[in-house]
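MODEL INPUT / OUTPUT PAIR
PAIR INDEX: 1
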Amino acid sequence: MSLVAACCNTPSTETQWDNRGEYQILGIKIAGEDRKTYRTGPKDSKRGLIAIYDIFGYHPTGLQFFDRIASSHGGFQLSAPDFFRNGGITNEQMGAGVMPWIHENGDFKKNHINEMILAAVEDLRKDGCTSFSVFGQCWGAIMSVLAASQENQPFLAAGGPHPSFFSVESLKDVKVPVIILASKDEADMIPVAASVDAKGFAIKCFHKRYENMIHGWTGGRGDWTIAENREAGLDAVDQLGAYFAKVAEANSKL
């Protein structure tokens, strides 16, 4: 799998956002340690979402994105675990240092990514959620797909905006439909979506390309004080919320 080139050379932005949610400790210890998560959304919703940030970790634009999705389309209880014990990547570590940093801090198995995701699911389940989807930004998007490729995985859908490492091969084992919101910097994602649709899921994959957006515009590289970025960001919020509401509704009718 290859990393989107823009992921290596585009720094994070300085932005602000007043968080609507709160940080909590996951109910299950991970490798014997307490780990935290960001929880947001209406507490009476029965629809759960696991959100996976990009390599910059908790960033104001990313948290705004999560808050807005959690309140969209009737609302979701959203949990965004803090996967990086020492914080996200710094701008000084960009360039050639990105892939080594990901291997050290964001490896699906070594860094207990799936264990944290499942712990967050169990917390949502205890809080009344009966259906679950998972999504992420950039690196987080492929993490969502890997989580949804495991045996006995609990999710109805996966995917996310400006994904890195997405290919027909990397999505070959995914067990749910996928939503792909590409920026101008990603490769053509239509064959990827088609390869997942070939699995015959009841809900088709959703794909949209934002030709004027850079890789990372909904997360650490996003500056929504720029009107065009904000408009595209809010559209991505709407597309994700609508898709996850759709799969949850379809599941409730089974």
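PAIR INDEX: 2
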Amino acid sequence: MAININLNDQALIDSVTAKTTAARNLLRQIATSYSPAVFANSLGAEDMVLTDLIVGDTAKIEIFSLDTGRLPLETYALIDEVKKHYGLKLRLYYPRHDLVETYTRENGINAFYESVELRKACCHVRKVEPLQRALAGRKAWITGMRAQQSATREGLPIQAFDEGNGLEKFNPLSDWSEKEVWAYIKLNKVPYNALHDNFYPSIGCAPCTRAITPGEDVRSGRWWWESPESKECGLHVKKA
């Protein structure tokens, strides 16, 4: 969620400046050494930081998003805002209609509430399979994940080989704090999802995302009926 940032906090600003330089240099390296590379933009706060860096630096990195068919209205509004603000038409990947029809026919429209297995099956149809198409033929993909976001992302490396997709995976904001993300957004007037102002720190599909209360973990609003250890959709699987 959007948090109040003291832009007179020089230590914070210095930290953001240093990490911005490091992230920008990494993105340039990726564009040069791992072409063709893509950035999977989920339209959360972190992803908008990376969008701003990539577009501002004219890095040769394609930006795409996954339209699951069940995104919040605010997320679709941000897609339009990205076009207006950056002149960027996001490439959108959609689920295969036959897979969605089979899932809902066999399990029900909201079967993901019934078990972790059915929820992950829905995520596979709406996210994982479209991602696999988006990554086909690429040498690297970039995400906005941070190590502090959840228990499943502790120790998140900046770079690692993704065996499942057969390419390098980069997390340029891995060591960023939530404050640093929002300081960058405020300093650079980056557009962001309006749900962040309504206590949504992490935003996915509408049925699987809710607001949180102060003090709750930032990922507690995602799949809130499950235990923290299962809260990934299959896009990002931490290898043992």
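PAIR 2 NOTE: The chain has one domain: 10-198.
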